[in-house]
Amino acid sequence: METAIIERPVAADEGMEESNIVMLDMELIDPNPANPRRDVGDVSELADSIRAQGIRQNLLVTPTPQGRYLLVIGHRRLAAAKLAGLSRVPAVVADLSEREQRELMLVENSQRADLTVIEEADGYQGLLDLGVSVDEAAQRTGRSTSLVRRRLKIAAIGENARSKAGTAQLSIDDWETIADFDRHPDLQERLAEAAGGKNWNMAVKHARQERTWREWLDTARAELERMGIDAADEQPNTDNWYDSPKGLRRTTMLTTGDIAKAIDAWRDSHDGATPVVGVRAEGASWARGIALYETVDEEAETAAREAREARWREERERKERETAPAKEFARASRDLRIAFVTHLMELKSQPKGIGKAVALLSARFALDTLTEGFDQWNSHAEDVWEQITGIGTAGDDADEAKPEDEAEDPLRESVTAMIAGDPQRAAFGLLYALAEERVSWETWRDAATIAEHATPLYEALETLGYRTSDTEAEALNGSLVPIDDDDNGRDTGIRQDSEPGDDGASQADDASGEPDDAE
């Protein structure tokens, strides 16, 4: 059927000459290559409507020197008209510059929900390529200048990163996060590959950590050069770790902060000497940093190490003698308690009062442990509670001046208040804090502690909707557990420099490659 002429013409933009509505042969109309919309999508429903009612809104075209017409507005209508079997369409013909064409197409398409973020971003970039300023682009499209600037940052994302995203429908926030790494195209590619999936949050966290590291390293290198210190680049060994050069002992490892101040502090503690500096830029993130070395006498170091080992052995034996009575009592009393509970579990009928016992144990154990049992150096359950509730537990200066028996306990008060108002949430928070406190870096290096502490925690969190990333899943499957032990009975994984090994020797890297002073 012949199409109906439109009921109302498309309004001409300011500066356009008065134009007439004409019926144009569709074979003379070419899609605009600068159209922000890359894909017109499914136009079958629109084609059905055109068959029934005709085209009810004109197309806008501009003439070309070849006697043809370039489509400005109406790409979906043109595609639907072809599908409907029409040969001519109603169109407004207007002489438009390339800048005017881009402005009109961007304004029209930006009002549609199906225009992708990348398409909109590229549309703004196209305007700037024609000399339009950011302020002008914002004014012409009715958007804020801040939005236009953010879209332009997205437009700068490279093709490699865009292709990594594939067909994933990324949100504006996702694209803006990727765009924020404009100085690191490789990180943009990693993020684009993870976008839209369960590994996104973990990928963003790692990318930010990597960016922070790179920026710090660049600043540190420049500062070392300014100070006239020649820093040697080191390479990791086959275990992805670094060995100290022969004749040197690493005393300091820097991964953040003002390196000039660190060098000055090192000099103050070494009679004004300047450290030997090594840059560990490659390998795993936990092995990287800038190392400060002091020169060592290997024979003196060996003698000192043997003396330390002898002292450690003596101290260990003394502690064993002192703790033997308590250990024996703990074993005996534990056996009695286990025997009692075992008897209860074997009873055919449920023991009287077991419900109250469960309530008392769960609530009292959680609260008392948080408020009274965390004087140990490695406890952080109290911090976990503060983080998950937002309730401060540090107290104020006034409490510090009170006698110990009168001082307030802000943690106990906050927990007690929550129990009164929302006992279920309080119970969950307390138990989660306790479970979280039991998971440390050491947990992930032992299959038994993973099964005992980490796996149950993740199972609980996943029932609440937590999405376990691939990295976390690999760790739960033992990816961080050391594979082999070396000849000295020490595992080949990471160990803190200040921590003695199983044989009592320090694990710091030194001149001879053997255990030496804690750093």
UniProtKB/TrEMBL annotation:
Gene3D superfamilies under this entry?
1.10.10.2830, 3.90.1530.30
Q: By its UniProt entry, which SUPFAM superfamilies does this protein fall under?
A: KorB DNA-binding domain-like (SSF109709), ParB/Sulfiredoxin (SSF110849)
Residues covered by the ParB-like N-terminal domain: 22-110
Which residue windows does the record flag with biased composition (Basic and acidic residues)?
Answer: 489-498
Looking at the Swiss-Prot or TrEMBL record, what is one Pfam family this protein matches? Answer: ParB_N
In this chain, the stretch annotated as Disordered covers 476-519
Which top-level group of life is the source organism from?
Bacteria
Alphabetized InterPro entries for the sequence = Chromosome_partition/occlusion (IPR050336), ParB/RepB/Spo0J (IPR004437), ParB/Sulfiredoxin_sf (IPR036086), ParB_N (IPR003115)
What PANTHER family has UniProt attached to this entry? CHROMOSOME-PARTITIONING PROTEIN PARB-RELATED (PTHR33375:SF1)
Q: Which family does it belong to?
A: Belongs to the ParB family.
This one is known as: ParB/RepB/Spo0J family partition protein
